[in-house]
């Protein structure tokens, strides 16, 4: 009996020790839903939307105007990864240029024209790819390449020409007649700085025509600088 009692007491003591160890072991806590969401996040905002504006200098046949036009509009960015992004938007662009008669390829050219001065109001629809080439914390240096479509809203032409040994001018306005789908190549280099969800950037660019632009079918090159403010989410 004494041996039985001793064995029972040892078994009870062993059970108590195991119970203490079980109590001391921290129970597995279910993961907080908010923490789980954070883990599933990519670690950077995928979308950005912003406003952009800046001067634009246009050139035809190597001849540029000292008076710039103006670009302004809305841009949308989707980040595929930390390095790669897709960008699109809607820009209202003002293009100002002068050209020689040999640069002008209208279906109905003006005879004896000696010069052409033109101003466009254009809706620029870009589709670009962006790559961050340098990306320390809160800063980005990037390159952009892509294509733009031009929807010509208003084309104003002022022709100078010779008539009966005298100089004369003639003006023509054209509305909503010319569309150029993915006909302009875009290239840019830029810098951007972030403050929380807001980022401010500046981006010099060049636009290279892949076809004749507007009523005159001119090779319209553009260069300029866009400043932008974006909200990242």
Account of the protein in words:
The protein is mainly beta and 233 residues long. It is built from two helices and ten strands, in the order ααββββββββββ. It has helices spanning 2-24, 33-40, and strands at residues 47-60, 63-64, 69-79, 84-99, 113-134, 139-163, 166-175, 179-195, 198-209, 221-232. An eight-stranded antiparallel barrel has the order 1-3-4-5-6-8-9-10. A hairpin with a 2-residue loop joins strand 6 and strand 7 (166-175). The protein is elongated. The model has no long low-confidence stretch (mean pLDDT 86).
Structure described in brief:
With 233 residues, the chain is mainly β. Helices cover 13% and strands 61% of the residues. The chain has 2 helices and 10 strands, in the order H-H-E-E-E-E-E-E-E-E-E-E.
Strand element count: 10
Largest sheet: 8 strands, antiparallel, barrel
- What is the structural class? mainly beta
The separation of the N and C termini measures: 77 Å
Low-confidence stretches: none
User: Could you spell the SSE succession in H and E letters?
Assistant: HHEEEEEEEEEE
Order of strands, widest sheet: 1-3-4-5-6-8-9-10
Count of DSSP H/I helices: 2
- The share of residues in helices is 10-25%
The backbone outline, from C-alpha atoms, is: elongated
| Average pLDDT for all residues | 86
Strand content of the residues, in percent?
over 45%
Round the Cα radius of gyration to an integer and report it: 33 Å
Ordered list of secondary-structure elements with their pairings:
Elements: H1 2-24, H2 33-40, E1 47-60, E2 63-64, E3 69-79, E4 84-99, E5 113-134, E6 139-163, E7 166-175, E8 179-195, E9 198-209, E10 221-232
Antiparallel strand pairs: 1-2, 1-3, 1-10, 3-4, 4-5, 5-6, 6-7, 6-8, 8-9, 9-10
């Amino acid at each position: 009996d004494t041996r039985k009692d001793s064995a029972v007491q040892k078994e009870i003591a062993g059970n108590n020790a195991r119970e203490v160890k079980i109590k001391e072991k921290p129970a597995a806590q279910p993961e907080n839903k908010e923490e789980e969401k954070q883990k599933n996040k990519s670690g950077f905002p995928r979308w950005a939307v912003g406003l952009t504006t800046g001067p634009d200098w246009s050139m035809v046949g190597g001849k540029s105007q000292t008076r710039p036009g103006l670009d302004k509009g809305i841009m949308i960015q989707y980040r595929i990864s930390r390095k790669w992004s897709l960008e699109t938007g809607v820009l209202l662009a003002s293009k100002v240029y002068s050209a020689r008669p040999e640069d002008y390829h209208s279906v109905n050219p003006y005879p004896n024209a000696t010069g052409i001065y033109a101003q466009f109001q254009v809706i620029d629809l870009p589709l670009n790819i962006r790559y961050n080439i340098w990306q320390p914390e809160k800063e980005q240096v990037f390159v952009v390449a892509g294509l733009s479509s031009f929807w010509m809203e208003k084309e104003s032409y002022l022709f100078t020409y010779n008539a009966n040994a005298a100089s004369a001018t003639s003006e023509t306005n054209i509305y909503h007649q010319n569309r150029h789908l993915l006909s302009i190549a875009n290239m840019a280099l830029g810098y951007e700085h972030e403050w929380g969800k807001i980022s401010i950037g500046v981006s010099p660019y060049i636009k290279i025509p892949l076809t004749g632009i507007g009523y005159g079918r001119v090779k319209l090159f553009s260069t300029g600088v866009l400043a932008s403010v974006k909200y990242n989410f």
